[in-house]
Amino acid sequence: MVLWSVTVLALAVASAAVLLVRRQARRLDALNQSYWELRYDYTRLRSQVARLDGGEAPAAVPAPAAAPAPSMTFVPLSSIRKKDS
Questions:
Q1: What is the pLDDT of residue 78?
Q2: Contact (CB, 8 A) for 56 and 50
Q3: What is the pLDDT of residues 39-71, one digit of tens each?
Q4: If phi over 0 gives left and psi between -120 and 50 gives alpha, with beta otherwise, what is residue 60?
């Protein structure tokens, strides 16, 4: 009889823990969604302010410089193979 009581109590605690974890997961998902919406709105508003000011955004990344011309030229293998004697 004691064994059944312990088993029922363990099942009750486990089911309560599962319900608690599910609730926390939903809250975390909602918090994560709110965070990304806030980031999106912040970026959109920052770009609007930059356009209104007529300047670039303060964190703008400069354009990469053009790649230098390669210093090697193509040499066909037929020009460097040994001649048969």
A1: 75
A2: yes
A3: 999 999 999 999 999 865 455 556 666 666 667
A4: beta
Burial of residue 50, with CB atoms counted within 10 A of its CB: 0-12 exposed, 13-18 middle, 19 or more buried: middle
Instruction: For residue 50, give every residue at least 6 positions away whose Cβ sits within 8 Å of its Cβ, in sequence order, or none.
Output: 56, 57, 58
**Structure confidence by residue, pLDDT tens digits, 5-44:** 999 999 999 999 999 999 999 999 999 999 999 999 999 9
Instruction: List C-alpha distances in Å: 53 to 19, 39, 46, 50, 65.
Output: 51, 21, 11, 5, 26
In angstroms, rounded to a whole number, what is the distance separating the alpha carbons of residues 75 and 78?
9
